[in-house]
Design brief:
The structure holds 2 protein chains of 2 kinds. By secondary structure, chain A is mostly helical. In chain A, about 70% of the residues lie in helices and about 0% in strands. Chain B is an alpha/beta fold. Classes of the chains: A mainly alpha, B alpha/beta.
Chain lengths: ~280, ~325
């Protein structure tokens, strides 16, 4: 993405040499991404949604429901099935934080501060998304770390396992544009969260994240066929545990392209309206 | 106004509408370099809208403005390089430490990491925030927060500074601190556009004052001119002995022909007069009666009285909250 695709605010080259560089938005975006990381370090409690929440979900599903869901009757047998799915759910849920944080920045006037500075107009938006990639990574590391401690292993090789983590990260970066868009459109952070839950719950629970959808009623199975989360979870299981990867991976990639193609322009248009 | 002064901020016919509400209605203003313009008005008068337009955050619907010679719409990038902005809407990040906020702003303005750190520390020291600088901004008191906001707008050493209600909600001590800072900035040659709801503040800091109400400029001029425009003067007499208050009131009433108001708490007798001609009469009669006074003054009306005279309504919040709520957003 380049500033040229937007109405770049410094329309004429600025007098100070360093600001007239066409790629000034790169270091600016990195500085703003750094801001998000600093915020995490200074308010670790704000990370609860990507730290404790996935661990609680893991513990809940593994130990409470695991024995009942698993065909073998032991929670240990459920772990390999659950962890790739839960990883998807966690990362999908953490993407809404991007929209909530953006909304908050606008409401609190932090964006106006940025806008009053001689920086590229797109930098704060790129910085917000990049900074959130770090949050997604943290949630991946924490959940996988907990999974490994409980006995999960990449049965299809470490390389494929890491590739799976990368795929889910990239998927999150594609999905977050929905929340960027809504974060800019909706009035309050609470309403962003409300809408997000409304979308996230059916997407993740009406899928193969926790159970094999074969036992679900027909309408849910039909929904599963068009639910991109299903294919992402299949990709993850294929890469981490072995099995068919090609078809679900292609569908996942296509859904990422679709998400970005629809929501990134909407988000950028909303952003331009507000800045 | 001196013509040798260069103009730092100039606006002609600024109009901004929000739906059917006109937040700014053909506002003209001009601020010579190195001076302070106080923009005075109640909540919703359009002060913030004006600052946002001059700060490139908002496009005017009509009219145009230049800041430092640059057009605020067409050359917004250049304007941003020479301005600093402080207001409740251009905020620091509350979830970061004061120091990190300042470093971030320095980095965004293209400073190297060491330079940004040095500038942050310099500003923290100047605003007596060195110790607090490491704490997250959320924990700051109102006065500290305002000083940090000011520091944030000064990172890039702007030559033109917008201060949108810099002391609203501060206690008198913190307010004096902010005033002192503003005065020092002006001494260094910074041009300041200050908005305020407090007439006292405009009087204390501004070289010229513009009074706006419901998006229109209702008066403009130097503080003394505005006071003179409102007309009436006031004669104050404070006896040395509080016990003489009633006798003084009687003498004043006789001399002026109007019943004075008697402020028992401050031991002050005060009466509106049309000119200074009754002053010698009062002095003579007090002398004849052998009453000593600690204060005897003919004063111009306060700016509060001026505002009432100019706009037909008072400046109090009770009045203004009902008017154009949210028009400045």
């Amino acid at each position: 993405m380049s500033t040229a695709t937007l109405e770049a605010p410094p329309a004429t080259p600025a007098p100070a040499g360093h600001r007239s560089r066409p790629f000034a938005w790169v270091p600016q975006s990195l500085t703003l991404a750094w801001r998000n990381i600093i915020r995490i370090r200074q308010n670790p409690e704000a990370l609860a949604d990507v730290t404790f929440q996935p661990i609680i979900f893991l513990v809940l599903f593994l130990f409470v429901f695991g024995g009942a869901i698993s065909t073998g009757g032991r929670w240990q047998d459920y772990l390999p099935f659950l962890l790739p799915g839960l990883l998807v759910q966690t990362v999908v849920f953490s993407t809404m934080g991007t929209g909530v944080a953006l909304n908050d920045d606008f409401a609190k006037g932090v964006f106006d501060r940025f806008r009053s500075l001689p920086i590229a107009r797109i930098s704060p938006l790129v910085g917000a998304v990049l900074g959130d990639a770090v949050r997604y990574m943290i949630s991946i590391v924490i959940l996988m770390g907990t999974g490994f401690a409980l006995g999960f292993r990449f049965e299809n090789g470490v390389g494929n396992g890491l590739l799976a983590c990368l795929v889910v990260l990239v998927f999150a970066l594609a999905l977050c544009w929905i929340w960027v868009w809504l974060g800019l459109k909706l009035r309050t952070a609470q309403s962003v969260q409300g809408v997000a839950f409304l979308v996230m719950f059916p997407l993740t629970f009406g899928s193969n994240v926790f159970v094999n959808p074969d036992t679900m009623p027909g309408f849910l199975k039909a929904f599963g066929k068009v639910n991109p989360v299903n294919y992402l979870v299949d990709t993850m299981r294929g890469l981490m545990l072995g099995g068919d990867v090609q078809k679900p991976l292609l569908i996942t990639l296509a859904s990422m392209v679709g998400l970005v193609a629809i929501f990134a322009p909407l988000a950028i248009r909303a952003y331009r309206r507000r800045t | 106004m001196s013509t040798t002064n260069q103009v730092a901020i100039e606006a002609v016919g600024l109009v901004k509408k929000y739906g059917s509400t006109t937040a700014l209605d053909r506002v003209d203003l001009s601020v010579p370099t190195g001076t302070v313009l106080g923009v005075l008005g109640p909540n919703g008068a359009g002060k913030t809208t004006a600052v946002r337009i001059l700060g490139t955050l908002l496009r005017p619907d009509a009219g145009h403005a230049t800041v430092g010679g640059y057009d605020v719409v067409r050359e917004a990038g250049r304007v941003r390089e020479i301005i600093g902005l402080t207001g409740q809407y251009a905020s620091v990040d509350e979830d970061m430490s004061g120091r990190r906020n300042l470093i971030m702003i320095g980095r965004l303005q293209g400073m190297s990491r060491p330079a940004a750190r040095a500038r942050a520390d310099e500003l923290l020291e100047r605003f007596e925030l060195t110790e607090a600088g490491l704490r997250i901004a959320k924990t700051y008191s109102g006065g500290m927060r305002r000083r940090l906001d000011l520091a944030a707008s000064l990172v890039g050493s702007p030559s033109i500074l917008y201060l949108d209600e810099p002391t609203t909600g501060l206690d008198p001590h913190a307010r004096n601190g902010v005033w002192e800072t503003i005065r020092n900035l002006v001494l260094d040659g910074t041009t300041v556009l200050l908005t305020t709801q407090y007439l006292e503040e405009a009087d204390a800091l501004a070289d010229s004052i513009m009074v706006i109400d419901k998006g229109r400029v209702v008066a403009a001029g130097r503080p003394a001119e505005l006071k003179a425009q409102a007309g009436k003067q006031s004669l104050d007499v404070r006896p040395a002995e509080p016990g003489h208050l009633e006798r003084v009131a009687a003498i004043v009433a006789e001399s002026v022909g109007v019943r004075p108001s008697v402020d028992v708490v401050n031991a002050l007798v005060s009466v509106p007069v049309s000119d200074g001609s009754s002053l010698p009469v009062v002095v003579r009669r007090l002398d004849e009666a052998g009453i000593a006074v600690t204060e005897l003054a003919l004063r111009l009306p306060s700016l509060d009285e001026v505002f009432l005279a100019l706009t037909g309504h008072a400046t109090e919040a009770a009045d203004s909250t009902a008017v154009l709520e949210g028009a400045g957003r």
